[in-house]
Design brief:
Distance between the termini: 44 Å
Mean pLDDT: 97
Largest sheet: 4 strands, parallel
Bound molecules: iron/sulfur cluster
Low-confidence stretches: none
Order of helices and strands: HEHEHEHEHHEHEHEHEHEHEHEHEHH
Number of domains: 3
Helix content: 40-55%
Number of helices: 15
Strand content: 15-25%
CATH superfamily of the largest domain: NadA-like
CATH class of the largest domain: Alpha Beta
């Protein structure tokens, strides 16, 4: 029996589903029941009424959101150390400090935050709906974090004043993309459409033909008549883009754009996680209750 057969057997036996983020290794994406972005995966987790176990192959904050939204299910993170550095950049103390300074300004937090931070915000957002969420808030100024580049994208699209929290939160992987590399690629692929994730720098956003989340990129490519795409987001998305669009060409805007945290999850670790039912992700109910409210407010918008 291969490892994949074993995983499938355990999945059936334990009534488990495997959810994998778009940045996961190809072999994990291929074995997953659903591949998507962070919030697509959480929504999917809520829809899996029959499942008892959710193996969330991604990083800490995403598995936490699934646990917050599915208190009756066991949520497993295959690798305990798979943590998102951006989510670690925002502390509860920082939010409390800013709330004292701006008591009337709502706090909008990107889902790339820990549950304890979400518990102190008014509403969550994803990179796909950040503009819509900020527009839905009834003030001209919002506290927004932790990603500084996404904050800038939101500011440009909404015209609202953004108070970033922390001052310069960022994703180390998305900072690797540089306009010079894209310009060089454009010499070889002059007709390629440039797709940029909003966690990339403003300079990258400025040269983009399309700015969007991973799922928005997938939808955009399917609808587009273009034949070639330069992609500025974590390299894991390339597997899905190529698989779903065999006739089109995809070029990663920087070939070493790898999130080492996402890549900690391997097929072997996923197997062990499912077999031994570890590492269980739990969020204390008082925190989960508040974080759930912030996530549900976001879901109510659509
Ligand atoms: S790609 Fe960036 S934001 Fe996403 S998990 Fe990795 S470090 Fe965090």
């Amino acid at each position: 029996m291969t490892l994949i057969d074993e995983i499938n057997r355990l999945k059936k036996e334990k009534n488990a589903v495997i959810l994998a983020h778009n940045y996961q290794r190809p072999e994990i994406q291929d074995i997953a029941d659903y591949v998507g972005d962070s919030i697509g995966l959480s929504r999917r987790a809520m829809e899996e009424k029959e499942a008892k176990i959710i193996v969330f192959s991604a990083v800490d904050f995403m598995a936490e959101s699934a646990a917050v939204l599915n208190p009756d299910k066991k949520v497993l993170l295959p690798t305990l150390g798979a943590r998102c550095p951006m989510a670690q950049m925002l502390t509860v103390d920082e939010i409390k400090r800013l709330k004292v300074h701006y008591p009337l300004v709502p706090v909008v937090l990107y889902v790339n935050t820990l549950a304890e931070a979400k518990a102190y915000c008014d509403i969550c957002c994803t990179s796909a709906n950040a503009v819509e969420v900020v527009n839905s808030v009834n003030t001209e100024t919002v506290i927004f974090g932790p990603d500084h580049n996404l904050a800038e994208h939101v500011h440009r699209k909404t015209g609202k004043t953004i108070i970033p929290i922390p001052e310069r939160g960022f994703c180390p992987t998305h900072l690797l993309f540089q306009p010079e590399d894209v310009q060089a690629l454009k010499m070889t692929y002059p007709d390629a459409v440039v797709m940029v994730h909003p966690e990339c720098t403003v300079e990258m956003q400025n040269i983009a033909d399309f700015i969007g989340s991973t799922s928005q990129m997938c939808r955009y490519v399917k609808k587009s008549d273009a034949k070639a795409f330069i992609v500025a987001t974590e390299e894991g998305i390339m597997h899905r883009l190529k698989k779903e669009n065999p006739g089109k060409q995809f070029i990663l805007a920087y070939e070493d754009a790898v999130c080492p945290n996402m890549k900690l999850n391997t097929l072997e670790r996923l197997y062990t996680s499912l077999k031994e039912e570890k590492h269980v992700v739990t969020v204390p109910e008082p925190v989960a209750k508040k974080a759930r409210k912030a996530l549900e407010r976001m879901f109510e918008l659509k």
